[in-house]
């Protein structure tokens, strides 16, 4: 397969993915932070704070309902018409829906209409997010040098971490506002700011060329007419594998949403302190993600991913315990170790691990469908955890059990995958198609 003769293209593709993901997930995580700290007080009735918290977490998770559907639609577009079109659309849709949230009336102003409008805007965010990481990962993988695919695709997740950092940082000065100012107008500022960063991301992405792999398939007339049919015919086992491996995302939402709420609202740890923990952990992750990816290009994707998943299953226990003990020093140390270092091993590697399971014809669809179904549980993990949370000083234990089980499932699923770090890009996913042909189930959608 011909690769681009422009040696700057892999770097430009990585930069475009980094910036786009930062913009997308700034918007996405701004919502998560607001759902933990603010939305229960302004979009729901104040009569029952626990019910309001559960309902607010549910609006965070509801976006994940739309993500599988969005994955099917955007995966089809990306595999049939190109990665660039999907990445431009997802960026604009996320920016629009986030800006709209900042304009919404509160429960006190509009009653039940307020949470309904909030859910509708959140659903649009879910559609956008469904195609973002799969599209960005496909784009960078197909532009990257053969022996550095994990490194270049890791920029997608580094961008995600940068978006989370920006989303958290913007709430730290807002935390200095008095309660009345924060709940009346201060909370809207982060949502309005997304308009500026969307413009930057759009400018970068519109100048990036389509990938050589996709152009080669188009030239040969091998683009799948129905990518989803091809995917489910030849790659159903890999899609299932990704669904279960993607449960590692539960660690992320428990760390960034549930434990934030638990620490601030239940253990009465200062809000700015916990937001600082999130920021520092993600600053560390900015360096850890590419470092793990470089290692994965040398030793393989599977051992790095599995280490991260198993490590998270262990570390979630002392981290939540430290919060329950109001031990701020341990909260900082364990939070940075859990999210910044260990989770980054799995988080930085999955774009390469998942993308390399498929050939170019169905890569975006395969990644999008598999990850978004798996991420759905991650999205509802704070809601599930709020329901599991018990009373008393050990009430957090069921949450830790739930998080550990999902992380271990992810590790086992990744262990069943084929190692692909030394497989040329034009051979990725070919074994599945060869098997289908040999058993009489060859793809006929091309």
From TrEMBL:
Pfam families hit by this protein: MFS_1
Segments passing through the bilayer: 28-46, 52-74, 86-107, 113-131, 151-173, 185-204, 242-263, 275-295, 304-322, 328-355, 367-389, 395-417
Organism in which the protein naturally occurs: Rhizobium lusitanum
Location in or out of the cell: Cell membrane
Membrane association type: Multi-pass membrane protein
One GO CC annotation: plasma membrane
Residue intervals of the Major facilitator superfamily (MFS) profile domain: 13-421
Keyword annotations of the record: Cell membrane, Membrane, Transmembrane, Transmembrane helix, Transport
Protein name, entry field: MFS family permease
Alphabetized InterPro entries for the sequence: MFS, MFS_dom, MFS_trans_sf
Any GO MF annotation of the entry: transmembrane transporter activity
Keyword Transport recorded: yes
Top-level taxonomic group: Bacteria
Endoplasmic reticulum listed as a keyword: no
